[in-house]
Amino acid sequence: MILLDRVTKSYGTNQAALSRINIHIEDREFVCVIGPSGAGKSTLLKLLTREEAPTSGKIIVGGIDYDTLSKKDIPYLRRRIGTVFQDFKLLPTKTVTENVAFALEITGASKGRIKNNVPRVIELVGLKGKEDNFPHQLSGGERQRVSIARALVRQPKVLVADEPTGNLDPKHAWDIIKLLKKINKHGTTVLLTTHNQDIVNALNRRVVTIKNGRVVKDEAKGRYQV
Amino acid sequence: MRKLRRASVSFTRVIKSGMVSFFRNWWLSIAAASIMLVTLLIVGTTFLFNRAVNDTLADLALDLPVSVYLLDEAPDAQVEQLQSVIESDDNVARLTFISKEQARQDYLAENDFSEELIDAVGIVGNTLPSSFEVQLEDLSRPESFIDIIERDDFSDVVESYNTERLTTAQGFGDFQDSVVVVGFVVAGVFTAISVLVIFNTIRMAIFSRREEIRMMKLIGATKNFIRGPFLVESSMYGVIAGAIASTIFYFVMRNAPDTWDKLILVGAKDLVANNIVEGTLALMLGGVIIGVFSSLMAMARHLRLSI
To answer: The whole model's pTM is what?
Structure first.
């Protein structure tokens, strides 16, 4: 469960990036967050991964109240939230397997657990046969799959995807969306920010629209309208 | 137990990652390790030179007792008092009383004069004074000893003492002090250069890995997991420089002569030969401290891990 209660985020004295927003997301939901550039979508995700702290308001994810988090707890919070980035953020000197395994290595996971989980997740995202490839040997869509595999390998309850199709052509973008739907079907809550109108409309899932830092629309089966 | 196992697995990975980074930036690593090697060689040489000068001075002290000549008319009670005061000085290792008769016999023995010759040239009586032969622990620091024999209340006991030996030894001591000071100043300068070079090496490593560091933060790496490899990398400069410095000292001192000019090197040679493990560890530790200090500074300045 994700709860944002009257959350405001301001930078200096400028207009607030987010202003008193309320969002409640149940487990296993698939939610699209849409809005024009600069609306506050990325800020929202940064608040969830605690890259940023809210100026005011309460955030609770998976039972963790962010008000009670100390700085040293933040890495452990991030391990419970899978994050997918628009620019993939893969390590260029590591292979597909090594990039995915890295997410487990930083947690102190044993070799056995890594050996067991990594191939399974690589297969799930459809990259079987490309385990030993380096990122530069993969297409954009495949790189994003590696990024998703890295987010999934720790079996998070929540997956946050920040414009994961932003750098991809339509075919690869659809492949990624199908993969996210599959992950959601397996029980992971997915929070997706996107600009892609076709994807939002075709998904026919809950859509939260943010404009000027405010939630202006929250529909259970929404369409892209900004 | 599970937590401990995880910590040990993470520790191993941090070490491995630091070593990978060391070899990945091998040209920077060689530069950093080289400047640290020069620093450790200067520190080590200063230390060994100090030891050699100490040995030389100790040897001089054995060979050069200081004579305190006594007035013939000095009352016995005052001579005894002077003796006990001199013996109470911490810098006095041994005191021997040489009577007038003993002095005469020593003089004759030293100069190979026969009794007949003495009679022939008409030397009669004994003009040689009695004396104390005083052996100092540290010839280069005779101040407390001189204070005693120059005290007013001993002015009617002490005729004179041989200052020449003391002056020579004091000169040697002053030279030692100067060399040690210069050695440590140069070592300080090179330590500062090492710190700057390693600081920049780590800064460049942080810069070249900034995307990786950001990604690590976002996927949940702890501060220690991110900072650890940089500490390992900078420690490796120290370990490698320490090992090479130790090897150089070992072979140089093994092939060095026992004495070089007036300098006695035996003690320094034995020190290196008998403490090679401890010496190597000390040099490595010195290098690691310099490396870790520099990289901590670089990380404090350039690695932002607040959230």
So the answer is: 0.73
Nearest CA in chain A to B3: A108
Q: Is A24 helix (H, G, I), strand (E, B) or coil?
A: strand
Return the closest-CA partner of residue A111 out of B6, B2, B232.
B6
Most B CBs within 10 Å, among A46, A69, A86, A102, to test the B interface: A102
Query: What pLDDT sits at residue B73?
Result: 87
Per-residue model confidence (pLDDT) at position B306? 65
pLDDT at residue A185, as a whole number: 92
Q: Is A49 near chain B, with CB under 8 Å?
A: yes
Tell me whether A94 touches chain B (CB under 8 Å).
Answer: no
Q: Is a pLDDT exceeding 80 seen at residue B111? A: no
Smallest CA–CA distance, residue B39 to chain A, in Å, is 34
Interchain proximity A78–B220, CB inside 8 Å: yes
pLDDT given for residue B169 in this prediction: 67
How many C-beta neighbours within 10 Å does residue B295 have?
A: 28
Question: What superfamily does domain A2-89+156-219 belong to in CATH?
Answer: P-loop containing nucleotide triphosphate hydrolases (3.40.50.300)
CA distance linking residue B258 with residue B256, whole number of Å: 7
